[in-house]
Amino acid sequence: MDLDHNREGPKLPTARGPLSAAVTEYLLGAGPLPRPETAAAASPYGDDLHLALYVCYELHYRGFAGVSADREWDPDLLRTRAALEHRFLSAVRAGTRVHASVEDAIADLLVEPADGSGVTHFLRDEGELWHLREYAALRSLYHLKEADPHAWVLPRLHGRAKAAMAAVEFDEYGGGRPDRVHARLFAELMTDLGLDTTYGQYLDAASAEALATVNLMSLFGLHRGLRGALVGHFASVEITSSPGSRRLAEAMRRTGAGPAAEHFYDEHVEADAVHEQVVRHEVIGGLLEQEPHLAEDVVFGIDATAHVEDRFAARLLADWRAGRSSLRTPLPGGAPLSHTS
Question: What is the pTM of this model?
Fold first, then answer.
């Protein structure tokens, strides 16, 4: 069955290599999918693989303009996606140092180092407006669909864990008020920063490291067998969000980014301080009460998130400290020097 072509979705991105070129051409009916050995040989953290994987995943969200909706469940494309996922997930498993227990992993998440040197510390202490604009452009790939990747886990949870997860997601979706949906609040932040709020607008500009952060949560969310890892990912996001958001709110105020830019992160300081408790005690607690064998997966989800986010942070800070853009295509009026990866 050939369903109607999508007329409202974002345009397909520009290919970055043989994998992404073949996937995008296939979606338009213009060529075959890549051979399995091409995916198996690709760099697991490279631009080509992550753009191809992102495109495959986006078919489960809003799709792309000109691409038939039935491509979402195209069996040949799903086989290609599986090969890309295997290459990425194998590298993440090999590169992630995991904690001995859920308790140890969460305890480390709760510790705020006195001399923190991450991206939010940089933005709070010395970031300029162009840094904040780049950060928002890159994070828009997630925040304009905020909470959607984590919502995939709801049908795979039961009882206490399900109820708690649904309660947190309800808050992320504005508690029933469209004006408070977090994706909308982020769009308003982008407007303050002079950015285009069109969904998927900055896909071509995003580095492989940025794409990997979004691909990881889609990977966990779309596989029932990785539901424990998705819960771990969600815990990592919620537990670290409040202090990080406080620093970002301070950065927005210091640079005069605008009231909506400040409000987005102020909202997350308050909301995620509550969510952190719910996720720790009810979502994780409820999941492991019913399925204790998933403890190792929860730990992996927490630590894999840190691994992928650390790679993204290293890329950002290396570029910014060198005085160059971290975007593949710089923003108008952005960094003093452009940078193409």
Answer: 0.94
